[in-house]
Amino acid sequence: MELLRISVATKNRHKVEEANIALKSFGIELVPVDVPKVEIQSDDLREIAIYAARAAYQYLRRPVVVEDSGLFIDALNGFPGPYSSYVYRTIGVEGILKLMRGVEDRRARFVAVVAFALREDWIEVFEGVVEGTIAEEARGSHGFGFDPIFVPFGETRTFAEMSSEEKTRYSHRGRAFRKLGEWIAKNIDKLKPLLQT
Amino acid sequence: MELLRISVATKNRHKVEEANIALKSFGIELVPVDVPKVEIQSDDLREIAIYAARAAYQYLRRPVVVEDSGLFIDALNGFPGPYSSYVYRTIGVEGILKLMRGVEDRRARFVAVVAFALREDWIEVFEGVVEGTIAEEARGSHGFGFDPIFVPFGETRTFAEMSSEEKTRYSHRGRAFRKLGEWIAKNIDKLKPLLQT
Q1: Cβ of B87 and A81 within 8 Å?
Q2: Which residues of B touch A79 (CB under 8 A)?
Q3: Cβ A176 vs Cβ A127: under 8 Å
Q4: Which fold has domain B4-195?
Q5: Which residue among A11, B108, B109, B172 sits deepest, i.e. has the most Cβ atoms within 10 Å of its Cβ?
Q6: What angle, rounded to 10 degrees, do the helices at B172-186 and B13-23 form?
């Protein structure tokens, strides 16, 4: 099978790795491209991803994928949500653990939104969610971001205690990118002319 | 003196009130207008304000002021910074106090950036900063946002323990808007044709 290569606008190598694990069985490989990223402030990941995908398309003038994701903690009213990356860079894992100290309700979810811009006016959106809880302390060294404090339902280990392959089986990102793969596979005849430029 | 009225793209009545206190002696009054606000994600308030001002101008097709502000806490690497409004809505004042529990270095600053779009390609930017510390507990009921936990240098009271007039004398927002007022006053002959539409 011929490998279908599609541009993805991210500099995060972990994200590219996880996306490509999810897309492998569809014969798709995402190739990172350097695009000035335009992210708006919004409580809605879909809105952020759609805006970014359109901006990336306008810059590249060819089909491009963007992904946005966040950790939403119930007891913190959804914080850090769409700003997870900024929150990670400032208060970090320790900050979240401090905010959750003494909090009984530890429910949280990771959400990933993948937006695929095929034209300026044609953007397909795929969402993946994984429910879980915030651990009492950080564990594990795989992955990135808040992986060391997130335990998916049905597991005792954090995402950072799993290999990328194992994490991607459960994860928000794995789910969103598998939906993308399925959609591309189903529509491949229609998409071929757009993707082979 | 004839009052000069200029549109401001905000729904926050506290911001409008403080801006108009600062601008009164310049004979300027800001009038809130309803504009879909486009805020980008950035660690740089200036970048956010300039982008928003341009977008607001493109929507209104007339001169418009936008303001963006944030609380930057040294010990938290600048958190909550440009995302202060989201952080206030989720973890709130109590969340910041919890993050600062046991932290000795309580230095922080409020920063306001005012961007004034006169044309699509002409945006003037004014910045105001006030240095201070994070209080040990919330005090006062005036103002909004993180005012109850911010004590400006040289004071023992928080911003929320001061009237709007008194706060505006010290505040980041007061400083930024007074700079705007001075600039408009100095350039009024050049600006009149643009502002009287």
Answers
A1: no
A2: 86-87, 90-91, 95
A3: yes
A4: Maf protein (3.90.950)
A5: B172
A6: 50
